[in-house]
Amino acid sequence: MNEIKFNNLGLKDSLLKSITDLGFEKPSQIQAEAIPVAIQGYDLIGQAQTGTGKTAAFGCGIINHITKNDGLRAIILAPTRELAIQVNDELKRLSKYDDLSVLPIYGGDSIVNQIRALKRNVNIVVGTPGRVLDHIKRGTIKLDGIKFLVLDEADEMLNMGFIDDLEDIIKQLPSERQTLLFSATMPDQIRKLAKRYMKPDAKQISIKKTSMTVSTISQSFFEISHKTRFEALCRVLDYDTPASAIIFCRTKKGVDELVEGMQSRGYIVEGMHGDMSQAHRLRTLRKFKEGSLNYLIATDVAARGIDVEGITHVINYDLPQDVESYVHRIGRTGRANREGIAYSLVSPKEFSMLKQIKSVTKSDITRKAIPTVNDIFDNKSKSILEDVTNTITDSDYSKFIPVAKELVEKFDSIEIIAALIKNKFNDELLETYTNDVLEAPKSEDIRLFLSIGRRDGINPKTLVNFIKDTARIKASSIGDIDILENFSFVNISPDVKDKILDKCIGVKLNKRKVNIEVANKKRR
């Protein structure tokens, strides 16, 4: 088993500290193989599936070699604004202690604001090819100091028609640079691009494609806000009352905080992570296997190798950083032909990761409503009724009859039964809730960017008809429309976003393929 840790890869202390804060305990395979090559300065061709941790693979190699006083040193090209934002956010977290300035650049956002930001000391630009090329032509991105170029999801950039833009950008970069190309597949045009613009001694790393199927497990998610995450978990547990569940947190600190919070409310739970001694972890695992713990809270690495029969639920308190970790997590339920349930608590900021998980695993991950207090009461009432019915039918309760007769002599029988049920209900309901319905995250219209505009001969009516007919949604789900010369913006209801992105991207309207992305901000 590969036991390589991040501190074995030659990374500087500030970067290792950021990695520790993020809760990464062990590099993924692409990270373990690519980071040392990148640090040594070789050009790199990395073939690996989406969701395997490629951002940290190239990000660590770059951050390890630059400081905040260096100026612009790296350009990272991504096929979509959504991915550019995702990469930008992760690089900011990785470079926290180096205080690097990372700037996302993409179409649909104010170019004036981008120009203003570029005049400050930016170290890394993450952008879509079209907008980056626009800035290069304007002279607002200076290329003379570029030491690193990353092509992320190169095959997707090819599919979206960016190959000419890529070549235009690469031709203008300094020849003495390091080029890192990552792609899930390697079509001929990408191979030719690599051969033409990368050094002859470029290293190639190919990560074997692993199965990402999880078809035997029922998967659902609950949309939550960050401040209601803990209460949402308690409500789900009180409603489902899992016999045995693993709850995953992204960080060791997260495990400790969740254990403390749940224990303070009476849940029988303990945690496992890499800072705990081996003896402590084995003791906790033994208790979980024996059934003296209902819930085990763990990080991905600490849960590695756990094989416990009868786990009914896996709950992602935090979504993991990559798709492979999600598959490994939920695979701990639904074993031996038993039914398994996987829940994820997802805040609005985590929806891009959820979409990636759905896409790569081809899973139907359905939205569920967070249980109300009345839902929990009704469910527990049914359970208590079933328990009492089974006791009357199957058990010998004769020794309790004298106590029952004594109570009946003093009180009404209905009142006695209600009091006993109340006691049992209070014993089982560990959390006291102040509101019946948990506050949902604020749901505002989502702003979509479409790569077609007036020059393509469209108007609001044709755009509405295209979206509603292709995605099979109601016209009432479509709001304000702004049609500009080369592109358009459309406001939509959040509940139809996935349908539109799944069904409309790449479909032709007026003989032109349409690219659609979520806009970062609504343009006023």
Automatic annotation (TrEMBL):
Name of the protein in its database record: ATP-dependent RNA helicase CshA
Catalysed reactions, as listed in the record: ATP + H2O = ADP + phosphate + H(+)
Organism encoding this protein: Clostridium sartagoforme AAU1
Recorded GO MF terms: ATP binding; hydrolase activity; RNA helicase activity; RNA strand annealing activity
UniProt domain Helicase ATP-binding: residue ranges: 35-204
Claim: Translocase is one of the keywords in the record: no
Domain called DEAD-box RNA helicase Q: residue spans: 4-32
Top class in the EC scheme: hydrolase
Gene Ontology biological process: response to cold
PANTHER family: DEAD-BOX ATP-DEPENDENT RNA HELICASE 47, MITOCHONDRIAL (PTHR47963), DEAD-BOX ATP-DEPENDENT RNA HELICASE CSHA (PTHR47963:SF5)
Higher taxonomy: Bacteria, Bacillati, Bacillota, Clostridia, Eubacteriales
Nucleotide-binding found in the keyword field: yes
Helicase C-terminal domain boundaries: 229-377
